[in-house]
Amino acid sequence: xxxxPRSTPKPSSAASDVYKRQAKALEFAKADGNTLVIxxxxxxTGGMALSGGNVKRSRVKADFTSGSHSGSMVPVFSxxxxxxxxxxxxxxxxxxxxxxxxxxxxx
Length: 107
Description:
The structure is a single chain. The longest helix is centred in the first third of the chain and has 20 residues, at about 15-30. This protein has helices at about 15-30, 95-105, and strands at about 35-40, 50-55, 60-65, 75-80. It is extended. The strands form two sheets. The chain has a two-stranded antiparallel sheet. A two-stranded antiparallel ribbon has the order 2-3. Strand 2 and strand 3 form a beta hairpin. By secondary structure, it is of the alpha+beta class.
């Protein structure tokens, strides 16, 4: 059953809270010098796609193409020692192995 697309959401206070927590983690990692910060998602939901807009008015129109999980890739952001392990495109299950490599490193 395909649900009708939802309306485009405005940034929520939950998203704002996530950004604040990420900033704190990055601040700590920068000061500590030995902390790896990884930010990702387990899946994408909704299939948000740009469907129009107005360049002169700096407006973008977006619609959700699905009412469920999609097959879209999700980003992985990393900062700190061994962050280079998280570059590229890979299955999300590889994140565990990359984390394990970073923890088990003998540097």
